[in-house]
Amino acid sequence: MKSEHAARMLPADHDQALLVGRMQLADGPTPVVVKGGKVIDVSAHAATVADLLECSDIASLDGPVVCDTAALADPAGEHPPILSPIDLQCVKAAGVTFAVSALERVIEERARGDADAAQGIRGDLEARIGGGIRSVKPGSSEAAELKAALIDAGMWSQYLEVAIGPDAEVFTKAPVLSTIGWGGEVGIRSDSSWNNPEPEIVVVATSDGKIVGATLGNDVNLRDFEGRSALLLGKAKDNNASTGIGPFIRLFDGTFTMDTVRDAVVDLRIDGPEGYVLTGTSTMREISRDPEDLVRQALSEHQYPDGFVLFLGTLFAPVQDRDEPGRGFTHKPGDVVRISTTSLGELVNTVTTSKVAEPWRFGIRDLMRNLARRGLIAA
């Protein structure tokens, strides 16, 4: 995708950042490090990003220069295709981590996935329980009291359980190697009529569970499917091209820390092919569960020998009408989705359907064969 979007790909302070990613070079998918104004092929040191993130001193690694960072920021710049910055990591996601998203999930549930019914439910729920959800800490005694009151009022929901209860919703979002990087097409199911992007920050952890950095993600959501039944979560979330990540992982250091993530403001802009524009903002300070707590819950009784990434959830729930009054927002093929924050840059993808998107064919066996053929791992 060579366009004006490229100018915002990198963090505002990219000259101070240490970035990790992947590019499609002539030989195959290749780990790269972005530092000192250069994009460097580090595959001689680490065959995969999963390996690279386990290295003790990534900043010292060197190798052939793929291109200058100026080429990445230039709309006309020449550089190899940018892939999703992860490879062998498991892709996890946390849901209902913001009060607004909790209310919207309850709306979907009560509307049974019917966008026409959502508008009438929204105002009533916000007035009756919105303040309570915003004011309590999940898992606290106050949250338990709110739960009891909502049960008595006949307003309890499985979504409120994970919003204010002790256990977060953590699920597997996508198979290994299936995620889409900067500039690629993200897919929605062709049979979905009510859906939206979910702009999120994604934290990256190594095999020992250490959080080493963060990137941006689009946890594409099908509101009609999940709204009909929470048991359709897998069908709503895991489809061809349904997960966007990138453009690069920014590693934690003296200028970028977990507190930077906690303070981040994530912006969203959607430009529709018919001229429609939607904007929104997520403020990470409004998250109900701390990112480190979400990672701890993902690790509580599970191991990830190749590391994992975790989508932290979104505050964004689009209600702005697109076509018919009262129906809110849903995607159209050709929508350009831009997710950005100053410390991580901008992830840009174009929306298509999962059936039309390029089929996912390059799996783990293909990657291992490719790396063996290149002499990067033993055959």
UniProtKB/TrEMBL annotation:
Annotated GO MF terms: hydrolase activity
Source superkingdom: Bacteria
Domain annotation Fumarylacetoacetase-like C-terminal: ranges: 209-351
Keyword terms of this UniProt record: Hydrolase, Metal-binding
InterPro entries for this protein: FAH, Fumarylacetoacetase-like_C, Fumarylacetoacetase_C_sf
UniProt-listed Pfam families: FAA_hydrolase
Family, similarity comment: Belongs to the FAH family.
Annotated protein name in UniProt: Fumarylacetoacetate hydrolase
